[in-house]
Amino acid sequence: MKQESQYQKHYNIFQNIGYYFKYYRQSIPIFLWLSLVEIVFGAVTPLFGIYLPKLAVDLATEGVTWQRMWLTLGVFGGLCLCIRMAAAASEGGKYYLYNTRRNELLAKVFLKTLRIPYRHVEEGETKDLYWKAMGIINQGDWSALHRITYGTISIIRNVISFLLYSTVLSFLNPFVAALLILLALVQYFISLRKIKYMERFREEDAELEKKRSYVYYSAMGNQAAAKDIRIFGMKRWLNREKDLLLERVRKLEQKKSRADYFFWQAGSLLNLGRDIFAYGYLLSQVLGGTVSPGEFVLYFGAITGFSGFVGSIMDSLAELRGGSLETNYFRTYMELPEEDRNTGQRHISELTGPVSIEFQDVSFSYDKAAEKKIFDHFNLKIDAGEKLALVGVNGAGKSTFVKLLTGMYEPDAGRILINGVDRNQFPREEFYRLFSAVFQEPFILPVTVAENLTFDKNYDSGRAWDALERAGLADKFREKGVTMDTFFDKDMDENGIELSGGEQQRFLLARALYKDGPVLVLDEPTAALDPIAESEVYENYNRYSDNKTAVFISHRLASTRFSDRIVLLGEGGILEEGSHQELMDKKGAYAEMFEVQSRYYAKDKLEKEAF
């Protein structure tokens, strides 16, 4: 038997219905009571609807007084109105409740991401599953949550109404009622066949919609791409791709339309035959005196309602099937394995002063089955308080080293020691507190300066401004009237501030200074800056790394001059290590790289050549 993939779990409709309604029972119990009220009152409302005309005809044919007629119809109509209002109120209240819970489910998906091992978060399958899980919740009335909830309640309500109508018709003639039910079942199977057939187009539909969205919004609709489109003459090429895509969409829609028309015709012919038979029989009973005019109106309404209930049941079933298939993505993501964050019992308060870090016989590969490893029995010790520069070309394993160092990745083999203690003896959240890290991609949210700097509601304002001062941003902020409550960007506040690339790096330095972790890690944070700006940023970082263990990662060599030791990574591990002068005297790979790059850091030379 083929083992089910952790990325492709399959649950049937009933399991997914149970999943959501269990969630409702735990989080909003009143939802189930509102659903029950909607089902009961919603199911009997149509029955009252067909009895009201019968009552009116009976009263008219019996020759009752106007007063009695209006009183009887008023009481019965008022009862119908109350039942309809109760059903509508419960439906509206239920709709509000489960729609407000969609944000809670979105938060659950996001928070789940923080519990999945980071190594898996970076994998393409996990990313794809994440966006599917977010998408099926965040689609309003087209979301899986709505479709499963609405579809389930609608089917139950319409099945009860269908059975009530069948009971009414059984008083006319049990054989006629049975025949109408049989024809309704045939209609049901035709509709079911249509649903299954149309699902053949689901994957192609999704693929074309993804491409269409990219062409219209990411390519043609992206203002940032306008310059490239003009300069490289991409307009004609994009239009051609758009036309080819639209042609594929048109052909698919034609297939779907033809199938839809075929099934619609089959259902219409069946309904026509059923109605001709039923109405013919009903008229014969009226002419024969077996059925009164009032009963004729009642049975006529019941027969007419048959096809409506079957159609509603099929529409709801289609909603259920689609919602169930999409719910599988959500449930699969929520059931991905999580990292064990509380295995250790040690506390980082045991670590005093700068800490030492040792990679002891560490092996790591993104594909454990691959013969070639990123690190193979890798050994490196960083002494307490040491400033280590880790350099090398792209692909040498620098960023992988950082992820292993900071606990984002676990080694396939070997250990990572902190002051001689296996880092797995510390709970993961505790371990993260060791690091003040600055990564290549600036992570600045459209929230306030204080929130971005401290990530703490109860922050120390004096300490925050001191961090900005040391990072070289405090004076600029004061000149522009920026306070701790000022927003970044203009997404949340039109008066929000915007920083240049260099200023963003200074702000990230301030964030690291505010956290004040014993280990400072810089993972190529200046890759987007010019060499001179990069050198200045590294000088700032170096200035405030005293009494800390510092690891500077770069493929350029701006961080090497002030480092205590330089480690040059290459394929297979460490190629060279030593101080800057030692490696220059060695005249090896590092010296060659430095000679090539050094002219870009000679500011005076650059300025002279510029003029």
Report on this structure.
The protein is built from 21 helices and ten strands. The protein is elongated. Helices cover 62% and strands 9% of the residues. It is α/β, with parallel strands linked by helices and 611 residues long. It has a six-stranded mixed β-sheet with strand order 6-7-8-3-9-10, sandwiched between helices. The chain has a four-stranded antiparallel β-sheet with strand order 2-1-4-5, with no helix packed on it. The longest helix is centred in the middle third of the chain and has 53 residues, at 235-287.
Which range does the strand content fall in? 5-15%
Q: What class, by secondary structure content? A: alpha/beta
| Mean pLDDT value | 82
Number of helices: 21
Gap from first CA to last CA: 74 Å
Measured as a percent range, the helix fraction is 55-70%
Shape label = elongated
Radius of gyration: 35 Å
For the secondary structure, the number of strands is: 10
Uncertain spans, ≥5 residues at pLDDT below 50? 603-611
Biggest sheet features:
6 strands, mixed
User: What's the arrangement of strands in the largest beta sheet?
Assistant: 6-7-8-3-9-10
